[in-house]
């Protein structure tokens, strides 16, 4: 069993990576439908050149002649596999060049496996959001993901006073992202977050959280302070989002309703309680 301080920390892991990750996934789908009338696959096809440059580092180039796009090195190149089929056939042979013209959106695309790093980057860098205040809302949530006070802290535990303060900050950041959704959907989000805070984690939740922490690319100092009986293999955060996907309930299937300029429109069909 986890101690109270350990459970506080694990609840924040679930809050940030489950609900924080989910709200950004929902936000991408809704914004694409509302602003561009696009599916995620359509978006990936249109922006694959720009997305490739988000993964390129140093002096690497794409295959487009006289390309003026700048490399951002904002994403690890492994993220491309979450979005595209990586075709072996390439139009360029130089090891300093990367081909984007043969990238194809995955036929089995499932953004419920996308993590905060990927979703926030696409929202901020690929013209999905243009309003600077809304961009800042996304950055605020991403900053919590990268904060050394949370997933990169030295010990996997948190006292009650710090927990109350941090929970308020992180939950408010998530709710800010969700405020664009219809009121009934926003309320459902808030209710789920409150239930997690006030409830008790089950044994499966606790073990799953320890595995998630061990699997994720978190601070090595944190690894060293994990309880000795937590023996799990390591991997990357991106590759192990399946755990959070498995926590999603499939009991409710509803549509997110968002207000358009001319009134209320259905802009995205999503599972409300994933």
| Shape verdict | globular
Distance between the termini: 27 Å
Number of helices: 10
Which strands sit side by side, in order, in the main sheet? 1-3
Number of domains in the coordinates? 1
Strand content: 5-15%
- String of helices and strands: HHEHEEEHHHHHHHEE
- How much is the radius of gyration in Å? 20 Å
Helix fraction by DSSP (H/I, runs of at least 4): 40-55%
Helix/strand structural class? mainly alpha
Mean pLDDT: 75
Describe the sheet with the most strands: 2 strands, parallel
Number of strands: 6
Quaternary organisation? single chain
Q: Which residue ranges are poorly predicted, with pLDDT under 50 across at least 5 consecutive positions?
A: 217-274
Task: Please give a quick description of this structure.
The chain is mainly α and 274 residues long.
Description of the structure:
The chain has 274 residues and is mostly helical. It has one domain. Helices cover 50% and strands 8% of the residues. The strands form 3 sheets. A two-stranded parallel ribbon has the order 1-3. Strands 2-4 form a two-stranded antiparallel ribbon. Strands 5-6 form a two-stranded antiparallel sheet. A hairpin with a 2-residue loop joins strand 5 and strand 6.
